[in-house]
Structure of Cobalamin import ATP-binding protein BtuD:
Amino acid sequence: MMSISVNNVSFRYPTVKVLDDISFAVEPGDCMVILGKNGVGKSTLLKCINRILKVNPGDIEIGGSNIREMDNNELAQKIGYVLQSSQFSDTTVFDAILLGRKPYIKWDVTSKDLEIATDVLISLSLQEYSMRRVNELSGGEMQKVAIARALTQQPDVLMFDEPTSNLDLKNQLEVIRLIKDVVKEKHISATVTMHDLNLALRFGNKFIMMKSGKIHAIGGMDVFTTDNISKVYDVDVTIETYNGHPVVIPLEGSSLEGSSL
Ligand SMILES: Nc1ncnc2c1ncn2[C@@H]1O[C@H](COP(=O)(O)OP(=O)(O)OP(=O)(O)O)[C@@H](O)[C@H]1O
């Protein structure tokens, strides 16, 4: 069964059409990266999957169930979603992470809930922050807490909007390694948006390149062609191989805007 199945989805804000007949599937074990220029509709697509925005027309299924038919708790158990900039109420880091268990908590927090939150805290090396106020953390530290909260939720589907944008190099690598490990270990899926193509290549096994509200290219690493990248980003690049891995290098001063291409 697919983790996420997006079928012929379109979406428009009152003044602008953003998504135009988008279809794709994410399977358990997939790390899917959604790529494309600023404003192309990546966050909008994640918000549609998370039912924050309602698609029209089109259908989205999570684990075989149509999201239209799920109640809020069911949806919260299935999807762990980290926004581009997460908001927290004024709690400790530990309580903010424990909040990920909310869709499961009936009357009181159980020892299992505490154990899951503690395990995630440790796996993200956040122990020393446990009793700090979350609103006193740096942007990157908060980003890690938001990711920790989503992992504590133990959902079938993880979705992150630019999970590495606030993080330094070490934390970027740590966070993508952790998400990949969780996806593999729990046989769930992660769908993320990213701007750094080389980080995307390290993270993903599947990629969607969006352009003008549509899917321009979808597939494995094979979508990373100079042609696709120049069409999607209006930038000329070369792709070199380093230690067996492709590396995308922009050609300086190569903006194609206004060129005949
Ligand atoms: N609430 C809104 N009302 C009207 N238009 C919106 C709204 N939110 C986003 N848009 C517009 O929809 C388009 C897609 O925005 P979206 O945030 O999905 O893009 P994105 O690909 O995630 O961009 P970025 O890479 O800059 O985060 C943009 O043109 C944006 O201006």
The longest helix spans residues 169-186. Helices lie at 42-49, 72-78, 93-98, 111-123, 139-152, 169-186, 197-203, 226-233.
